[in-house]
């Protein structure tokens, strides 16, 4: 996210934290230019537009923006302190009501170091979760269960990278029992950074697929980055291993941490069976060791069952009672644009699963959608898949060939690279009604005509 402008953070609210300036100085090896080292801060901000009076403002810098350019607006909005790696003009520093100025070598690293320090002060059980598909939904399910058992912090949305993750960790409070931290990686070195801050006791990799191929090249490259979550768990920690994924199954043994396995096969310690997916929701049976229970999700699609099984495995590892596991799954609701169901007055059902598509996630979502809504006409709206690099054309074409085999009634394509999806679909003898649009407004206009 450092490559984006500060507008990317305009919706973020500053995070509740509790630390003294001396703690920040110690964690970051920073220099106190002015202010009281014993001053207590309870909020931080990285965006001058959402900053609240009394916040500590971190001036982050990226390739296309520099938070130092917004020091004056931050001070005018009431920042009580600023963290900088380049001192601004003297006139800015003399604005009234800004007693605390901290200079660090790198403001982004300072935010990460502060988050690591806050994490080190916490007694919470920390669960780290990553994977190609389903990590956000699984994270939300884990949090929904653990909230039945104690005070739980969870990553908001998908704030899971080098900036979003430390903002999440800065919300840790002394009385948190659990923290469910989503860890997003896109290139080599990402997981090392996130592990340094998070230090989870429990690790979960949901699956390994074709995401971020532009930087990681292949599913094996994805695994090499994400496996550090398992490899670096402490000896007393636990790796929760998906036996359904052939690239992850070998991790069921050989780690310094203990392992708990899950999957659709009864050989897993936590498994799911008897799945019934309907538009109203999904029911299934969960087996956890020697116990079992009837489980239910208020969301359609068998895609969610493996995620629910993973969440139950994490909770089982933490000795959460079965009735709380069941209640937590029942209270789960999907995040925005993840298998969200909208029902129109005329009976039309629209399923929105449009967030952050990659070749693996599209296949899983479309299969689940087709199975759940097999009695209704099925329309698919598909945009470009990102971060595929030189493999983009081939991956989009292969997806088109695969889509041609799925019982879809209409397909709507939008975006430059979907021309390759169209080419793949037309290679098949079985062709659904397909329309492709290069302009978003034309796609929306067409959908309004027929919906």
SSE blueprint and pairings:
Elements (H helix, E strand, L loop, with lengths): L14 E6 H8 L2 E4 L5 E6 L10 E3 L2 E2 L2 E2 L4 H6 L4 E4 L5 H4 L6 E4 L3 H14 L4 E6 L4 H12 L5 E3 L9 H6 L8 E5 L7 H9 L3 E4 L7 H4 L2 H8 L1 H4 L6 E5 L15 E6 L6 E9 L2 E8 L2 E7 L5 H15 L4 H9 L9 E4 L5 E4 L6 H14 L6 E4 L9 H12 L6 E5 L3 H8 L7 E5 L2 H11 L1
Parallel strand pairs: 3-4, 4-7, 7-8, 9-11, 9-12, 10-11, 12-13, 13-14, 14-15, 20-21, 21-22
Antiparallel strand pairs: 1-3, 2-8, 5-6, 15-16, 16-17, 18-19
Helix pairs in contact: 1-4, 5-11, 5-12, 13-14, 14-15
3D architecture notes:
Helix 1 crosses helix 4, helix 5 crosses helix 12 and helix 13 runs parallel beside helix 14. The chain is of the alpha/beta class and about 450 residues long. Strand 7, helix 3 and strand 8 form a beta-alpha-beta unit. About 30% of the residues lie in helices and about 25% in strands. The two termini are about 35 Å apart. The N terminus is likely disordered. It has a nine-stranded mixed beta sheet with strand order 10-11-9-12-13-14-15-16-17.
């Amino acid at each position: 996210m450092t490559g984006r402008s500060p507008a990317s953070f305009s919706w973020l609210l500053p995070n509740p934290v509790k630390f003294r300036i001396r703690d920040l100085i110690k964690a970051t090896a920073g220099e106190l230019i002015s202010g009281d080292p014993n001053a207590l801060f309870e909020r931080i901000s990285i965006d001058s537009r959402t900053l609240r009076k009394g916040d500590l403002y971190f001036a982050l810098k990226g390739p296309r923006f520099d938070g130092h350019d917004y020091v004056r607006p931050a001070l005018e909005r009431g920042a009580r302190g600023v963290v900088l790696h380049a001192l601004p003009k003297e006139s800015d520093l003399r604005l009234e009501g800004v007693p605390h100025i901290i200079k660090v070598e790198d403001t982004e690293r300072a935010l990460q170091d502060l988050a690591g320090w806050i994490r080190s002060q916490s007694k919470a059980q920390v669960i780290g979760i990553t994977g190609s598909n389903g990590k956000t939904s699984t994270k939300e399910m884990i949090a929904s269960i653990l909230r039945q058992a104690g005070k739980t912090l969870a990553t908001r949305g998908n704030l899971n990278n080098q900036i979003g993750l430390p903002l999440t960790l800065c919300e840790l409070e002394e009385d948190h029992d659990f923290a469910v931290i989503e860890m997003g990686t896109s290139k080599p070195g990402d997981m090392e950074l996130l592990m340094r801050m998070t230090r989870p006791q429990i690790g979960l990799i949901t699956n390994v697929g074709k995401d971020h191929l532009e930087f990681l090249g292949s599913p094996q490259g994805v695994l090499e980055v994400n496996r550090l979550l398992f490899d670096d768990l402490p000896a007393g920690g636990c790796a929760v291993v998906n036996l359904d994924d052939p690239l992850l199954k070998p991790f069921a043994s050989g780690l310094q941490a203990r392992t708990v396995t899950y999957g659709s096969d009864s050989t897993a310690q936590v498994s799911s069976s008897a799945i019934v997916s309907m538009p109203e929701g999904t029911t299934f049976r969960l087996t956890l060791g020697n116990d079992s229970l009837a489980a239910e999700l208020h969301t359609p699609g068998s895609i969610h069952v493996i995620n629910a099984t993973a969440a139950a495995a994490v909770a089982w590892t933490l000795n959460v009672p079965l009735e709380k596991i069941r209640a937590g799954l029942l209270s789960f609701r999907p995040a925005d644009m993840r298998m969200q169901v909208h029902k129109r007055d005329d009976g039309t059902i629209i399923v929105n699963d449009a967030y952050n598509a990659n070749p693996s996630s599209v296949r899983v979502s479309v299969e689940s959608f087709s199975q759940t809504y097999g009695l209704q006409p099925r329309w698919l709206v598909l945009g470009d898949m990102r971060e595929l690099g030189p493999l983009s054309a081939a991956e989009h074409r292969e997806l088109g060939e695969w889509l041609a085999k799925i019982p879809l009634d209409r397909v709507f394509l939008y975006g430059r690279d979907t021309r390759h999806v169209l080419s793949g679909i037309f290679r098949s003898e079985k062709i659904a009604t397909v329309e492709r649009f290069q302009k978003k407004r034309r796609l929306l206009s067409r959908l309004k005509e027929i919906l």
